[in-house]
Records
---
Amino acid sequence: MTKHKLLQPSKESRQDRHGKCWVGLAIAIIGLLVITILIFLCTKGVALFVRHGIGVFDFMTGVKWSPSEGHFGALPMILTSFVVTLVAGFIALPLALLVALAITEILPERFQNLLRSLIELMVGIPSVIYGFIGLTVVVPQLRQWFGGTGFGLLAAIVVLVMMIFPTITSMTVDTLRATPAAYRIGSMGLGATRWQTIWHVILPYAKGGIITALIFGMARAFGEALAVQMVIGNTVSLPNGLMNPAATLTSVITTGIGNSVMGTPANDGLWSLALVLLLMSLIFNGLAQLTKGRARS
């Protein structure tokens, strides 16, 4: 073997270098796309304030949304978005936690796999299906029980609970299964019952991951558009009752973007709502990553 051949990189080394180049190129393309979208959305989102002279404070605190009259108050949609998200999250969490505990700690293995498969199937169901269920089942049932139209905050909350429940459950199952077996064995060895072990050992260990699952679920709920738009009633007003129609950021954007002309105050106002939605989503994701990092440490 000549000295020249010894100095040549091996086939595996060349393949590894080429693989790294392709991965780097893919990362660069994705990063460029994300930056482009952010710049585009920020540019469109501030047009209402720069081009039409609407104050940011007035936009964030105003309570009337009527672009045709020059009123751009986003506070009702922001508050409604937070209300339906928080309520849905805190209803879905205990349900998801109970199912996750059943999958990881209580049921026999064959039933665990069956239930886990059903949960994973629910995660993949399109949001329009949940919205259709809400429109054809939830809304008529609420109308029968409580009167009124059936459209409103409660219908949106029920639909969002159905949507984020499988997401929170799936992530919680992964978190609970990450608990070291030595913790369970040690607790049982000290005479603790199964429920004592769950309550005093497993749940405290998995707390950070469970909170992360909740935040991810709420982030999905906050950004959901179609399913919420189908059942909430789409009336812009401050939240004043579970059975009263309301509107979220996403529902107003969904219903209005196709009926407005590009460059008009009405259209720019919708882009400003989209910018607020983006900022809120980034905050949710940041909280999730922060919680996940603390849980690992």
---
Amino acid sequence: MINALHFENNVGHIPPAHRQRGVVLFFALIAMVVMMLAAVALIRSVDTSTSVAGNLAFKQSATVSADSGVETALALLRTPALDTTINSAANATLGYYATAEERNLTGSLTTMAAFTWDNTNSAVATGDGIVAGRDASGNSARYVVERMCTTAVANEVPSKANCLFGQGDAGGGSKKGDPGYISGLPSAASISPVYRVTARVTGPKNTISYVQAYIY
């Protein structure tokens, strides 16, 4: 009878060692979940950093490639055959405009006319290393040149009223009484209108960059 009672008292009793193993397993599972979440967060952080670094590299490459657009525009302005027409008449296929258009920071027109940066209103940059309109980095540069004038006046007679101009290197009087002094302006030979060049570069992953330069 005593042995039977002793057996009944031990029914359903869990030894302390078993309870400890259950608690350890519970905390181990929690630790595994925390480690998995930390690993996922680390992977996402690395992916984001890589993506940002890649985007910055593409952006920097596009900005450097914009120099080809500025250089092509400068060569256009120096072309002797165009001197008689390029200054007073717009030529959209060459990317040249005799008057300054109102544009926003992206180079797009803010007026009613849409500026699409295609062959109808801009020109493709050319130069060493550019094949089929793209350089070795896969960037394509287009440009527009605007004479900083409000009206298409002849280049030989610039005026403060309608043009922004810079002092050139050629000789000529700039003071009253000097040879070539005309209406308070330096001589025509020493005056050059200011031209605004806007270069737009498109590259891999739809990267777009804009660069502006003022030339006179």
---
Amino acid sequence: MTPLEIGYLMVAGVIVLLALGIPVALSLLAVGASGLFAIRGVRGTEFLLESLPYTSVANLALIVIPLFILMGHFAFSAGLSEKAYKAAKAWVGHIAGGLPIATVFACAGFATVCGSSVATAATISKVTVPEMLRAGYNQRLAAGPVAIAGALGILIPPSGILVIYSIATNVSVSDLFIGALIPGILTAIVYAFGIYFMVRRDPELVKRTRIPKASWGERAKATAAAWEVVVLFLVVIGCIYTGVATATEAAGIGAALALVFALLRKGQKGTIWKGLVETGSSTASIFLLMIASAVFSVALGTTQLPTVLAEAVTGLNLSPAVLLLLLIVPYLILGCLIDGISMIFITMPVVFPIIEAAGIHPVLFGIFVTKLVEVGAVTPPVGINVFVVQGSVPGLKLGEIFRGVIPFILMELGLIGLMIAFPQIVTGVL
């Protein structure tokens, strides 16, 4: 059997194991080790398996992962999600669809200090969904926006998914954060306009859900109360954008600052400890995926399959736009079945060489993949954000939440098409 044939068998093997419900890390590790054994024999496989698990994670720069996760937990403990919502509500709560729109902007605000889709959806939904239901919004309009807007946590810097993409592809995380800022803001604005026009179609709903307009004094007070969100965002992202600190250093500064904010809030010691434990657990899971992905990538690279596929795609003379459009379908299917981190580690060894050969900017592709991960976060059967929102607010029906996110999925696909047509939205600021 030729190495190339072994490569095809490896890809098929991963698909079969995932279909059988085997965890992603174990699937990649088992197939990668088997591929190495088939190509290099016992001694070569033994040598690589002795060194790869250490070398794939023994990098000081990887400390950015637990630090950004920790910053998100401390930001939650400090009550920043609630403060972001109250500030957004003071400014836009009185317009048609004001509360769902405020929820979108609150998610965007909290995303600037969190970096996690699940954490953003969970924390914001507890604050906003009950209030929207009391105000007269149906479950679709109350829960749908927070489920999809929670996904902004993986797009707006500091984004955990972009950090993972950076690790998987060796693309600068600072460039990814810079490239993600405009798409993140644009996404929040499109969601807000979408909600406004959806609500405006039902005059009775507009009348029933309208709340009094906040005075300028109330707006100023609510905005001032959210000062920690602004400070944390400016310190972390400002340090990265200006070059004062690397992403790793900025993550450390942000985690320390968020801890101070959490300690200033009474009764949060238990929450802080829980955040430390969950950070350790999440980091261990990610590192196991990284080790498994490294073994799989080395084995697949040995078969020359990525190189052969890249040359084949280059030979088709597809434009970058057409290639990206063709990649939407497989990524949408994967997003329905596995989480975003796993999706990146599984696909990058095969897809990224093709992207490089086609001349597609790696930062543009990173934002492209992140947007599709956003869609996957609300698409059944996995749709983790939908389940998180349902679990955070008792009484919500799963079907209603899934129906509520459908218009936003269409908006997401439209935004992805816009980025493909005008890549300067991402690359113009680099």
---
Amino acid sequence: MSSASGSRRLPCFGEYFSLDDILTTNERVPCKIEITIPKLGSLNMSSKEEDLKPGAKLDLPLWLAAPLLNRRIVSAEVPKVYRETYREILSAEAVAVDLCRLQPQYYNFGLLLQKLPLPDVEFINNSLIEAFKNRFRHIMDCAQGSIKEDLMDLTVRLDVSERTLFALGREALEDHQRWQRRQSHRIATAAMVTNHRKRKRAALTDSV
């Protein structure tokens, strides 16, 4: 296996202690074995061979697929949710797509895939940008209460990054509402003080 080692540098995949990065790098990449790997035939459920033979197809977690790709032990394809069919669906009906069901780490995983030598990987970046732009306004409008939609129904369709944005939007709305209540209280207090002073001046005038 060491003879298959290449000179390419292994890409860095996020922060070691980040739970989001751990979950993202555990997402699967469709791979094809390119060399014989002794004693690992049991990994291929469709074969009874003792060794893992060239041509065998396995879905490997990104953290494992990356070094094997780097050493040319496997080749890989773009996961189906980033392929042309799904890119077209996202382009046409971005808001309606259930990203959580398709790929809960859609944006994070897509960004990491671009570091790998995969066919058509160059199309992923534009797809991520377009999907984000087309969905962002709707997510923020719902978070701010501008659109009347069942928030539970919305959030279950969001990927991890979008849920974070939605939560930040709700937090900003609540902060603004608290600020408005404080301002209203201050205005009401100021009005009471002004009225009290007017009454006091009127009372003094009457006494004179």
